[in-house]
Amino acid sequence: MTKNTEQTPDYLGHRKRVRDKFLAGGGKDMADYEFLELLLMMSIPRRDVKPIAKNLIRKFGSFADVINAEKEDLLSCEGIKETSVALLKAVREGAVRMQYQTLKAADQPIINSMDIMIDYFRSSMAYEGIEQFRIVYLDTKLRLIGEEIQQRGTINSVSLHPREVIKSAINHGAGAIIMVHNHPSGDVTPSRADMEITDKIDAACKAVNIRLIDHLIISRNSIYSFSQKGTVF
């Protein structure tokens, strides 16, 4: 009988240590690359994934940047296949969905949950490479009814029509709305076009007795509130 001289790969012991560290602390004391490594262990079963995780953080900058990276950019990285991309995107979607459901479940005016709303839109929009414009629909007590993307644009502009915004608000039975869009450049200073469209939609809302509560411009690290800045309203 031939004696089996194969040894357990070193990375298997390392994987157990990573899992144990996560289970012991819930991930709070783990570096971005370690948390990413934990996820990659689930999609890449027979390989040392630590170098892959570190390479991803090095290329994109942070855990948040990795899970928000474009599919093609992720697939261009050594060791990353579609299974790993699907897992990373599922984590992102799970985080965004949890934030939205938390916001939706709050039976109170949305202005009492502004931090949660801003976190939600930062997660769902701030990492987009092009501008998108969303409308948040509220009832007469300013509780969340729903939200939708009204327009997607180029890297620095969107085309939004007040008529379509009002039509959609009426169809949702909204008594008030909040406008939200992102600036991929990171500079949340409103442009002249931002100011003009806000004035037009505000006037259109007043004509049908719908309140425009605010217009938020979101980036990864900043936010501009038309209401708080006293620009309108």
Structure notes:
- By secondary structure, the protein is of the alpha+beta class.
- The chain folds into two domains: 11-95, DNA polymerase, domain 1; 108-229, Cytidine Deaminase, domain 2, CATH 3.40.140.
- It is built from ten helices and five strands.
- The chain has helices at 10-25, 32-43, 50-60, 63-67, 71-75, 82-105, 114-125, 162-171, 192-207, 226-229; strands at residues 132-138, 144-152, 176-182, 211-218, 223-225.
- It starts with 9 loop residues before the first helix and ends with a helix.
Feature tags:
233 residues, 49% helix, DNA polymerase, domain 1, disordered N terminus, 2 domains, alpha+beta, Cytidine Deaminase, domain 2, single chain, five-stranded mixed beta sheet
What is the topology?
Blueprint: H1 10-25, H2 32-43, H3 50-60, H4 63-67, H5 71-75, H6 82-105, H7 114-125, E1 132-138, E2 144-152, H8 162-171, E3 176-182, H9 192-207, E4 211-218, E5 223-225, H10 226-229
Parallel strand pairs: 3-4
Antiparallel strand pairs: 1-2, 1-3, 4-5
Helix pairs in contact: 1-2, 2-3, 2-6, 6-7, 8-9
What is the CATH fold-level name of the largest domain?
A: Cytidine Deaminase, domain 2
Largest sheet: 5 strands, mixed
Pick out the low-confidence regions: 1-5
- The separation of the N and C termini measures 86 Å
Number of helices: 10
- The SS-based structural class is alpha+beta
Beta fraction of the residues? 5-15%
Order of secondary-structure elements: HHHHHHHEEHEHEEH
Please estimate the helix content: 40-55%
Q: Report the top-level CATH class of the largest domain.
A: Alpha Beta
Number of E-type strands: 5
Q: How many domains make up the 3D coordinates?
A: 2
CATH superfamily of the largest domain: Cytidine Deaminase, domain 2
